[in-house]
Amino acid sequence: MTPDAWTSWPSREALARDTRSRPRRVIGWSVRTGLLTLMLWGTFTNGLFGPWEIVVGLIGVLVCALLGVAFFRTSLDNRLWPSLGLLGMLVLAGFGAGQAGATVPATVLWCACAVTALERLPLAAGAPATAVALGAYVVVDTDDWLTTAATTAGLCLAGYVLRLDAEARGSAQRLLAQERAARVAEAERAALDERSRIAREIHDVLAHSLSAQLVHLEAARLLIEREPAGEFRDQVLQRVVAARSMAREGLSETRQALSALRGEVSPVEDFLRQLVTAEPAEVRVEGERRALTAQASQAVRRVAQEALTNVRKHAPGARVQLRLEYQPDFVVLEVKDSGGRSPEGDLAVSGSGYGLLGMRERAELLGGTLEAGPGKEGFVVSLRVPA
Predict the structure, then answer these.
(1) What element of type H or E holds 21?
(2) Residue 249 pLDDT > 80, yes or no?
(3) C-alpha separations of 285 from 92, 133, 270, 288, 366 in Å
């Protein structure tokens, strides 16, 4: 036995009841119920059947039960002196029961104190407490010294075996928790590796392609600007400039998607403020800010982008208000415009084609909702997803 074993408490996993299996919990409750029944039986089988004696006996058993519950809680919190104080009160209650002639409840109290002290306290404190409890039992039980000695030895052995069993159970619980954590970390690592591989593929194909398109569109714009002014020239130049703007936005969104795949996502509120830099828009953040899951973060970003694109198409020049609210289990994004929507917008600044249906499907896949419709002034898009 190591020196630390005398001063260290049993682990919390060993003392907590919720770490025990169902059969062990059933056995534990059965033992406690049996001890309480034995105490009640011993209290009322000593020829004391007066009304006041019955009341006093019931109160005494109830107080002892409450003291026992309090001892279990203080020992679970590793509070030594309160635990010893409660144990001492139980031992004194046993002396009181013995003086009143109720030897069976007194014996039950002393034996239970002896076993639980060894099981739940540091050995440096549990061993003396057990000695005191068993000493009281030995003083009262003077019928047969050999039987008394065997009983005390058995109780000491039982308390120590229960302590070893609890420690073994606690060690198993800790190993199980570590194995689960290792498996989760391994799964997360594998998912991150796969996302990094996908990000590399997207970067090598789509990002390079968009970058090349930007170069060619810029060259086309410069060539067109050198031509003499005219209606046809101006129309072609307008389309080339719009295509270049779309390619630039697509490249920016691709880089954001790559960052999300690699787990390098900026806070959502920063993204929203950057998104409306060139817009007559206001961003308001409510609730306690926290890091969102990758799925929730992407949903908020995509819905905000699509909602702003729709405002540009159908209500150009309208003022937009974005409200991001952090709720305990959800995050809510609300995008409202000030009205002035037209039936048809400028197709030159068409959005990504995601659409309200796609936004709603994304929200439902995450267990959330998306509502879109006319508001008091303009159009309102409201997203609510778990986060």
Answers:
(1) none
(2) no
(3) 61, 63, 10, 9, 22
Burial environment of residue 290 by CB neighbours within 10 A (0 to 12, 13 to 18, 19 or more) = exposed
How far, in whole angstroms, is CA 214 from its chain's centroid? 46
Q: How far apart are CA 186 and CA 184, in angstroms?
A: 5
Separation between Cα atoms, residue 349 and residue 241, nearest integer Å: 11
How many CA atoms, within 13 angstroms, populate the side-chain half-sphere of residue 361? 5
Is residue 268 over pLDDT 80? yes
pLDDT at 143: 65
CB neighbour list of residue 100: distance below 8 Å, 6 or more residues apart: 46, 48
Backbone angles phi, psi at 324, to 5 degrees: -110, 120
Residue whose pair of structure tokens reads 């060539």 in the numeric block: 223
pLDDT at residue 351, as a whole number: 42
CA pair distance 140, 151, nearest whole angstrom:
13
Q: What is the DSSP string of 95-143?
A: HHHHHTT-HHHHHHHHHHHHHHHHHHS-HHHHHHHHHHHHHHHHHH--S
Residue 3 has pLDDT above 90, yes or no: no
Name which of 297, 307, 312 is nearest 346 in CA terms: 312
Assign 286 to helix, strand or coil.
strand
Q: Which residue has the higher pLDDT, 132 or 345?
A: 132
Q: What CA–CA distance (Å, rounded) separates 90 from 149? A: 22
pLDDT band at 230 (very low <50, low <70, confident <90, very high): confident
Q: Is the pLDDT of residue 345 over 60?
A: no
